[in-house]
Each structure stands twice: as C-alpha cells, then as structure tokens.
C-alpha cells in the first residue's frame, strides 16, 4: 500500500477563473464567494479505481467503435496520443482517460445539437482508455470540425476534443479540451482565452507529431496531460490519527 | 547557473460544455456505444448500511435550474473506508464508492441511489461526519466545482466536523446539509446546489 500523501496546491492562476464576461454562460454559473481551501484528507487523496474489465479494447478507436461493419467515418484520420503525468513528471498509471468530440463536419451526436452539418452514421464521437505503465494513452479518431455556438452571433469553436482524466485522487479530477496547433480560431475563442496564461494555452494545444504518423494512412497529434503532483512526504498527522 | 526545479504544471481546465454526455454518459446523449457506462452503481449489491437516495437541482445565479450538469459522487462505505489502495481497510465486494449522474434535460433534477457512508477519519485524528464528495461540471463552469454532501440526521457529528467548521459563516454551513425525508419506506436526502447568489453553496478548493 502506498502511503497517503497530499497533492500540491492547485495553481488557480493557471486555470480559467469561474467568471469570464466574454464567455457569457459563465456569468450566472460562477460562484461569487471564495472557495474554501481544504487541506487534503482521505476524502481528497483517494479516488475511484478503474480496471481493464470496465472498458473494451476497441473503446479507444473512434474510427471503428461506432462504424457499421465495413464502413468508416468521414474525415481526416488522426492518432491522438501522449502521456498522463503528474507535476513531478511521474507517469500516472492505469488511469481512465475519456474523450468526446464533434464529427468532421463539426456536428455532435447529441440530441441537443441542432447544427445543420450532418450526423455521420459511422461516428459516435466518444472513446475511453486506460493509461499503461508509462502513463501512455492512445486514441484513433477523425479530426473534429469547427462549429458555431451561441455566445456572440458569430462565435466559432476551434476544432477540439474534450478530455476527462481521473488520476489517483479525487482532487486530481480534471476536464479539459484539446486544440490543434495552428488553428486560427484559437486566439478568437472566449473559452480558450479564458485561460489567463499564454503558456498554459500552449499546454492545451496538441502538436503535430510527424514521427508518430502512419505513412499513407493516419496523421498524428501528441498531447501530454499533467495532473496535480503529490508531496513525497506523508501526512504529518497520519490518517489513522495515531 | 540557477537551479531549475523541473516541476511540470497542471493542464488548465476547460468547461465540459453542453455535450459532456457524449463522452461520459452517451446513453443520455441519445446513443448506445459502450458495453457498460461507468458510474451507474455506486455501492454495489453487497454494501452494508442504509440504502438511501440523494437528489436535487443545480441552480444558476438567476435561480433557474441548470439542465446540462454532470455530477460525480465519491464516498466511503458504511465503515468510513474508501475503495482505494491508499485507504486502510476493506470494502465490500463490488463497492466502488463512485458514481456519475446527469441532470434531466427537461427538469434539471438529478438523483442517485447509494448507501449512507460512515464517518471518515480526518486529519489530526479528527473524525469527519458522514459525507459524500461531489464534483460538478457543466457548460459555463470553467473548472469543476467541489462540494460535500452532509446529512441532516447527523447534527452532533456535523457540529464537530472539521471541514464544516472551516466555514466561518454559520448560515452558509446549511448549504452543505442534505435534508432527510422518508416516503414509501424509501429514505431520500434533498441536496439542492446553488451555484451563485444569496444562498450560494459552499465550494471547496481541495
Ligand atoms: Fe465542444
């Protein structure tokens, strides 16, 4: 059993603030009182544990996981891969990574999405996988299209893939979005630009990874995910209280 | 040459957006893709303790229910043990202690069935009152919000709880307490979350 150790304080200045006036939905969905800071207890340093029986081996292949036999989704075939690390640069092993995205036309398979771009009959738009012993994860999918959304009358989301990660403790729980290097919509997007630090915006931008492409087949993007790190020392006051 | 600490920095959060269901609850988005969606069964069939339901609404700063929220619950078993290798003790076979639920698209109501957790040993040997850790995300929420669900029938334990007592404003402590009721032999706790405004729920930076 690993000894309980707490997480480093989250650097809130690196995350978007709750209230961002240019991202209109956040205006009434942002707490106004300060968050109450907690030192980690057992409730925060623990979190759900997943196993390989929770998922199927094809769950990480969005090109086949919803396609009819012998058919494929339309779009630019991509590999999205990288590692889940903590702030100490150690791999986060056996952790669940889940993604979801629009299809190549920018349309989501969701009963609430009414964008006029068509649903792709061979594309579901979600995948999940567990990181390996090196913290490595891998998905195959198609590159999502940009899509319009109601913020200003002419607002467009840059192409993006949503990503959800667990880590080992509930305090590491994180949802983010993966953008693609070079997308001209990135500097215009209020959701991306809610991230206050340009260096942090770079961190949510996947890089074209020519070495990982499959020639004549699939292009690749690399995206490492960093979760909060943990102290190397134990709780000064042991959880058992003795 | 100055020393470099070489720490990496946490990936910035981004909103889960309105279509979070596709990835985390595809059935609700309107399609079936996985053998099994995760987070539907928090306690499992073998869990000891009192079977309960927890339900509520999540309201925005105008008092309107938010209908595209995804909530995750994380809790100990009835002995106060988390199903995690770093927490000493055993949990029942099939007890995961984690659940995922979405709000109804029409009404905004959410609810999950579980068992009531036991008290958990906190820091400095101080017992934490029974509670469920709650994390919620939605369109318009830039970084997931953390709160805790405590129980209205645990007055003495709540009064001694080290986390509740961090909330200086006594009125605000009430926002952390789910209200117990019994109907048709079922125990239901009501826990409405107010994201913003006068009765804003206490959220934690954990
Ligand atoms: Fe999106």
UniProtKB/TrEMBL annotation, chain A:
| Gene3D superfamilies referenced in this protein's UniProt entry, alphabetically | Aromatic compound dioxygenase (2.60.130.10)
Task: Cite the entry's keywords alphabetically.
Answer: Dioxygenase, Oxidoreductase
Endpoints of the signal sequence: none
Where would I find the Intradiol ring-cleavage dioxygenases domain in this sequence? Answer: 45-229
Q: Is the keyword Metal-binding in the record?
A: no
Q: Which SUPFAM superfamilies has this protein been placed in?
A: Aromatic compound dioxygenase
Q: Which terms in the Gene Ontology molecular function aspect does this entry carry?
A: ferric iron binding; protocatechuate 3,4-dioxygenase activity
Q: Which NCBIfam families match?
A: protocat_beta (TIGR02422)
Q: What is this protein called?
A: Protocatechuate 3,4-dioxygenase beta subunit
Is Iron set as a keyword in this record? no
Q: Which domain of life is it from?
A: Bacteria
> What lineage is this protein's organism placed in?
Bacteria, Pseudomonadati, Pseudomonadota, Alphaproteobacteria, Rhodobacterales
Q: Which family would the database say this protein is a member of?
A: Belongs to the intradiol ring-cleavage dioxygenase family.
GO BP of this protein: 3,4-dihydroxybenzoate catabolic process
Natural source organism:
Primorskyibacter sedentarius
PANTHER family to which the protein is assigned, alphabetical: DIOXYGENASE, PUTATIVE (AFU_ORTHOLOGUE AFUA_2G02910)-RELATED (PTHR33711), INTRADIOL RING-CLEAVAGE DIOXYGENASES DOMAIN-CONTAINING PROTEIN (PTHR33711:SF10)
One of its Pfam families is Dioxygenase_C
Query: Which InterPro entries does the annotation name?
Result: Intradiol_dOase_C (IPR000627), Intradiol_dOase_core (IPR015889), Intradiol_RC_Dioxygenase (IPR050770), PCDO_beta_N (IPR024756), Protocat_dOase_b (IPR012785)
Any idea where the Protocatechuate 3,4-dioxygenase beta subunit N-terminal domain is?
A: 8-40
TrEMBL record, chain B:
Keywords for this protein: Dioxygenase, Oxidoreductase
Q: Where is the Intradiol ring-cleavage dioxygenases domain?
A: 46-197
Q: Name one Pfam family in it.
A: Dioxygenase_C
GO MF annotations in UniProt: ferric iron binding; protocatechuate 3,4-dioxygenase activity
Entry's InterPro entries?
Intradiol_dOase_C, Intradiol_dOase_core, Intradiol_RC_Dioxygenase, Protocat_dOase_a
Keyword hit for Cell inner membrane: no
**Listed SUPFAM superfamilies:** Aromatic compound dioxygenase (SSF49482)
> NCBIfam families from the xrefs?
protocat_alph (TIGR02423)
Q: Which PANTHER family match?
A: DIOXYGENASE, PUTATIVE (AFU_ORTHOLOGUE AFUA_2G02910)-RELATED (PTHR33711), PROTOCATECHUATE 3,4-DIOXYGENASE ALPHA CHAIN (PTHR33711:SF9)
- Similarity remark: Belongs to the intradiol ring-cleavage dioxygenase family.
What is the official name of this protein in its record? Answer: Protocatechuate 3,4-dioxygenase alpha subunit
Organism taxonomic ancestry: Bacteria, Pseudomonadati, Pseudomonadota, Alphaproteobacteria, Rhodobacterales
